[in-house]
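Hi L.,

You mentioned the student needs an example of a multi-chain input paired with its predicted structure. This one should do, with 1186 residues in total across all chains.
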Amino acid sequence: MNFSQEMTKRAKGLYDQLINKALGDRSGEWFTQDMFPKFFSKVKPKDYGLEDELKTKTVLVRRAIAIDIMLKAMTNPKNSKKTHTAEIFEGDLLLGVLPMGSNGLGKVFPQFMTDDELRAGSVTNRNTMSLFGHNTMNYDKLLSSGLKKTINDCDKEIAKLLANEEKIKKNTGIIPSDLITDQESKHSREVYKNKTSKDFYVGVKIACKAVIDYAHRFAEIATKESKNKSLSQKRRTELENMARIAKRVPEHPAKTFHEAMQSITFFHIALHASMNFISLGRLDQVLKKFVEKELDKGRALEIMECFMIKLAGRLNLSSDYLHKQDHVDYATVLGTNPYYIDQKAGVNNFLQNIIVGGKTPDGGDGTNAATYLILQAIENVNLSTPGIYVRLHKGSPETLYKKVARSIEKTKNNPSIINDDVMVEAMHRTLMRGMPASKKEKMLKIARDYCVDGCWELILNGKSDWTFTMFNAMTALETSVNQGASLSPTPELFRGAKIAPYAPMPKTFKKLMETYEKQLRFFVDQCAMSMFLYYMIDEYAAPSPLFSAFLDGCMERGRDKAWAGADYNLAGIIFGGIPNVVNTLLGIQKWVFPKKGKGKYTLEEVADAFRFNFKCPDPTQKATQNTYTSVQIDFDTNTPKFGSNSKEVTEVVRKVLDICYSASMNSADFAKKVYEDKPKKEDWKNVIALRRLTGYYGSALRRKFEDFNMRFTVGLGTFEQYNWQGRGIAACADRQSGEPLAPNFSPVPGTLYGGIANLLNSMKSLELERFAGGVITDVCLDEKNASAEVIVNLLKQAIKDKAGMLTLSIGSEKIYREIYEKVLAASKITNKENACKLLAPYAGINVRIGGWQTPFITLPISHMENYIHRPSK
Amino acid sequence: MIIKETANIKNKKFISVSEAFAMSSVDGPGIRVIVFFQGCFINCAWCHSPHSKPSCSPLLFYEQSCSICMRCQTCKQNVHVFKDGKHILHREFCLQCGKCIDECPNSSVYKESGTLKLPTKKVTAQSLLLQLLPHISLCDGITLSGGEALLQDDTTAFLRLCKDKGIHTCVETSGLLESDCYAKALPFVDVWLFGLRVLTNNNSDFHTKKLIPNAQLIKNASKTIIPVIPLIPGVMDRDEVLAEMLLVLNVIDSDEIQLNPWNIFYDVYYKALGIETTFLKPVDKAIKQCEAKVRKFFKGKGYKLTNRKEDKK
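Structure written out for the whole complex:
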């Protein structure tokens, strides 16, 4: 399908407005708490059909009310003078504006939790801000049913539950409120279920109505604007039409392409405004019928370009004003233990991806007119967000391969690629684990409908709730060569911080690998169990009634996604630093435990060289220093590296992956035994003891929720955290102490000596079909080699060689170095406007940094230094 | 890309190569893997790869990345000497053992770049193809360049292996080898990049008499020949040289001529080898004038001219 290959004039106007804004100070556009009414004193329960005080309501109901408060604040004209959230941008064809917020800068939302709840949550790091996002919703349902139907469904369910409540009252005489927390008895479980379900439907109703009202308020704004006689008649007619659409959707089903896009826009804004940073999923599948019906394809492209620019509305292109925009809260962390992300790298990450192409549930190819429309809009607009992934497989049409190659050639980094031939199989294996063979076909259909979340982790499109933990695989390697301790040079800690069980120094390479497996499992056990603990807290801090309304299973079960409502629960264990582990093991294999003869160094010498960052603490010990220097050189330049296609490298990569996978599955089974499975009669005492050892005193999740099944996936990558994750890690084969780890599942920048072809070829034998958590390789192709023809060949090779996921940037060391120098120069200019002007010409150069695309000029300096070495032939 | 040397090369037929690159869009039709073979006797005055002339390249040394750590002094042949803070190489003593590369923190046998480098790799034809296959699968074919690829005995065997795999092959040559070299390879080469080097330095005689029969030989075998003119200011833009080229072109009978621009990095390998250049580096103006004159001359004769480094892309 042919669309215009240049950005439409309308979109160009919007694009310029956005870039101008993004290059300046956006700190004044953020919401502040004084823009919201005081939750417990000013918000009237009656406005939401509730009788008692708000503090007596569950967190879920309160969050739903807070969504309404947020959306109202967004259309408040007084607030909008600062936030611009009630504006219609000149030429825009879609209504609604995303409020400021990002993964790296945080979010602002009305505080709906009580002081007591906040105090209690301080021990688990969960509060209002803890919404995780990282999901996709069922937009097909939104477009075909509309919110009104969801509200009606809620009313019906509430009526049923009220009748049931009467029945329970009759049976027992009372509903003992204190029993609500005691879920062990069948009776109390029924009471509890009734109560939580009722609250869930009440919350969904409030949240859905809030979005309808938001759309209607925007309809009024558009109507008012359409009466502005200074506007052209054409624009006034457009505004009237937009008002008409906003009165219809998302309340009702969408009938036209424009309505579908407006409905999605309003809902996406409502989700992100209420802190649910989630992706748009397989948008081309959802929009297929609307695009096919749309006669004016040029208009469709205009609308899609407006949509892309709207999604990028929160961009920040200057590093000068970011401190003032830091709204990250202590509880905006992943998991129950604080994990502080690399905020600057995440300034322009909004966790919003679009996924196109790929197989349909029945196994056919899903490429359609909407696929090409989305790709063209992305190509024309070429902003760093939303991210776009194309699912490719051997049977994908040639035209799609060519279109993708052309888009990458033009945008220099979009779209990213997912290999269906690997990832469908990976997801299928995950879904089938522990399932009877009879489910094979059903699970295959579900697996084929996978997508990715805001970064690249695999999830099920609108069907799954996702949570994950990251683990730095280098940590376990440190403890493996240092008897369970980190390689800390601090003398007070003797051999280092004791972060894992004691293990004797391995005497052979085989023993080292065995030790690594055991050490890794210790940490992975923590990962697997922490996900259950984390999941079981979320109902009390981070329920998502609006999202759950369109996440398959929640409405049917009457349960929020935070409380086992979704059809599928996925928990990912994502390993970072695998290439560094491989490179270090290759060095140890070659120089400490060679297949023939005696090693040049002992493992103790190597561990000490790493511990002391190759610098002997006592400068008079020349022999020791010489050993450390030799270790550094031999491990760095005289050892093959991850990414080369040699047998010795591939064997070690395979071994490491086998260990990661088997350890994860082993830990997953153990965690499920502790928290999820109903214990066997003969085993229940032991299991209860195990639960209590972990600090959990409740019952098995399968007892609470009969069909609960946490499915564990394993992934390989670092997201943008590779710089961050390297900070606490001692030196190793390919880096000095504290330096970045390898990004994702990619060679250390500057070490792709064998070229991209060899890297891809080496993937063949790794059985990446095991890694349904996602396994992503970042490649930066030197612009000298980057023609569309080369890219098509490269894409086909990646699919054939069974690479899991691939991000392909095109760049040159020269341009990256040039920008880097300019950024350094700009940082020395005191006049911020002049500094911005210096960098403005580079605003359109986006790069891939692990989890997402970002403008190069906004990267932290350490990321830039790392990126400069990436272009490869 | 790095070519891995075949182990235990003794008693095996082998090929010597110096470098290889994937995804080149200027070295033959479409996107190519290009392999530079070692060895050439032609002695063009403007040669920009002097290291590829002998059968095995001497040690290359890139001074700018040397950190003067002096670890290379472990060399028992005393190749590496440091005087007044300067790293001096005595290549005449070098046994090519590679020990200095192992010791150098800025060099690696696994990398293309580095302070010290021994570029020549001896590989069997089978091993070379096996190593190149992943790259070839991303490309439209392979181009053999050099040096003079056809000077080596086993090049034909390598080309045969390529054709057995259905790979599109191209050979770049000066056209100045013995006819036998071309005759042997002819069945396995799809396209020839044929250098119109009627002159290899300003003092030599014209090579037209050598070029014409070789061009004729290839032409008779109905193979595609793309004539290539190296744009050497002061040599290739001389009137009598242009006239001689025309004689060869009449045999080749191609509408298209590829212009190979002056290599601005002409002296890099000379510096790395520690030797003097053999051709005076032309100034920009001379380079432009040379191209303009050659273009005008052949355009006037009805030829279509492409610039090898730019036009194709």
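You could point out the following to them. Residues 9-347 of chain A form one domain. Confidence is low (pLDDT under 50) at residues 174-184 of chain A.

Best wishes,
N.
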